[in-house]
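Researcher: Hi, I'm a grad student and pretty new to this. My advisor asked me to get structures for two proteins we've been looking at. I'm not sure of the right format, so I'll just paste the first sequence and hope you can take it from there.
Model: That works fine. Here's the first sequence with its structure tokens right after it:
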Amino acid sequence: MSSESSLRILHKTSPKIFQEFLLKLEKNTLYNFNPFGKINPSNVSSIVEKELFRKDKIKFFSFCENSLIAYSYLTKFQKKSKKHNCILGIVIGDKWQGEGFGKKICKHMINYAWQKNFEKVWLTVFDNNTSAICLYKSLGFEIEGIFMNDEQYLKKQRHVISMAIFNNKRNYVNKRKKIWQNIE
């Protein structure tokens, strides 16, 4: 499989296809991406229904070889002072990971965000998800902060890294350093 295969990114899919995709995600993938909590056959239809009808998310369903291979989204902030920002989320099906699809899909979403006049795309990633962190850095995301023991999953504390990319292409590394110096 290659990311050069016919990747199609759509804004809609059927609930059945989305449910099947979520139920196929393996334990490690769910450990690194799971804003829905536990996913199982008894709750997946409720999760899908809520997700498909959310108005604050611009949804992307990525298909290759007629299979849903990824679900991703840009979440719009409701707070007026943050409407220029959005949050990126993405999960690639296990069979399709490591094939370059994540980079292509993220590039598509970032370009979409700039076309919609967002100024900043923000995301969070768990500190142990080093392949995702490398991917985001390769796309130009910068680390904004680390939240220690920020989330708990399966009774285990997890550290969360905040990352962002800016439409104005500025590198904020030096500005961040200066702010840290001023508050220390």
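Researcher: Oh nice, that was easy. Here's the second one.
Model: And its structure:
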Amino acid sequence: MKVALIGSGISGFVSTYFLAKEGVEVVLYEKKDYPGDHARTVTYDGVDLDLGFMVFNHISSTLVVL
């Protein structure tokens, strides 16, 4: 069986791992030139910064960084 997954965020990586572990041929597609989407490391002014998942709560308009 062949499966195509779209998006290399945490869900795409975990799904790819478990499907491949079961013998499924998986192709993972990502539109950006880096994997991970929100969870990634960026370099700003010579400093490496780890970014994580961000949640915007529409009720209280609060930005929560986990």
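Researcher: Is there anything I should tell my advisor about the second?
Model: You could mention this: The first helix runs from residue 10 to 21.
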